[in-house]
Amino acid sequence: MRGRLQLAAGGALTGLFVLAALVSLVWTPHDVASLSIGDRLLPPSASHLLGTDHFGRDMLSMLMVGARTSIAVALVAVGIGMGLGVPLGLLAAANRGRLVDEVAMRANDLVFAFPALVIAILITARFGPSAFNAILAIGIFNIPVFARVTRGGALGLWTLDYILAARVAGKGRLRISLEHILPNILNLLIVQGTIQFSLGILAEAGLSYVGLGAQPPLPSWGRMLADAQTMIYSRPSLAILPGVAIVATVLGLNLMGDGLRDRLDPRLKRGVG
């Protein structure tokens, strides 16, 4: 029962922000690119449900487009990490103890030595700050995460009888990895993907906060927090609203990840009502 409640609550929270991001593709209450200094710092009203910021931009519209930015960056970054990390982990597991395995794992250790923020600094120092470079930095950091999860899950399967039978039948390592190993570790990858998605949103917000992520005029929750810090006492809502959006989205994804783990892990199904 707890797993179902977590999955439902997490899905509802996540779905709310995903819906806001999708709606922002075709409609927002106001244009986020237009400045109206005469309407700056307005309180909530019928025309501006959440008020306006110090440039006169509608806060609800900013939050909607900011959701689109954060979700898009995190989603593409997770896709990069999964698209490169999963094949790398499968390759390492299929060649356990060989040179390929050692090189892949040591390369992962090297990437792990540099947090996403440091990778972003290195990239932006060369190419300049942008949402694309934030995606690249977070994606590079996700590669060893998925490689290790994939390798760890696959290693336990390579010793099972049905894998040995497949090898005796003449199937190669690549075919076994794709036909037998990958389908049986998808539950691990789905749960890990959900977790990395939430961490990607946090990383994007952090990079935008320090000026290494999405650049103006593209709204971002992290950029909104950075812009609001000088008015935290006079207009705290400018910082509270994007902060709550980040917390709620990450909480929803973590709850959904826990719920998916309880539903997909056979060892935990007995405890699910």
Describe the structure.
The chain is an all-alpha fold and 273 residues long. 70% of the residues lie in helices and 0% in strands. It has one domain: MetI-like fold. The protein has ten helices and no strands. Helix 1 crosses helix 2, helix 2 packs across helix 8 and helix 8 runs parallel beside helix 9. The longest helix is centred in the first third of the chain and has 36 residues. The radius of gyration is 22 Å and the shape is elongated. The N and C termini lie close together (4 Å). The model has no long low-confidence stretch (mean pLDDT 90).
Which secondary structure elements does this structure contain, and how are they paired or packed?
Layout lengths: L1 H23 L34 H36 L4 H14 L3 H12 L3 H25 L5 H8 L4 H12 L1 H24 L11 H8 L8 H28 L9
Helix pairs in contact: 1-2, 1-10, 2-3, 2-5, 2-8, 2-10, 3-5, 4-5, 5-8, 8-9, 8-10, 9-10
Number of separate domains: 1
Distance between the termini: 4 Å
Low-confidence stretches: none
**pLDDT averaged over residues:** 90
Tell me what the CATH architecture is. Orthogonal Bundle
Approximate shape? elongated
Number of strands: 0
Quick one: biggest sheet?
A: none
- CATH topology name, in short, is MetI-like fold
| Beta-strand share of residues | under 5%
CATH class: Mainly Alpha
Structure classification: mainly alpha
What percent of residues adopt helix (DSSP H or I)? 55-70%
Within CATH, the superfamily carries the name MetI-like
Radius of gyration: 22 Å
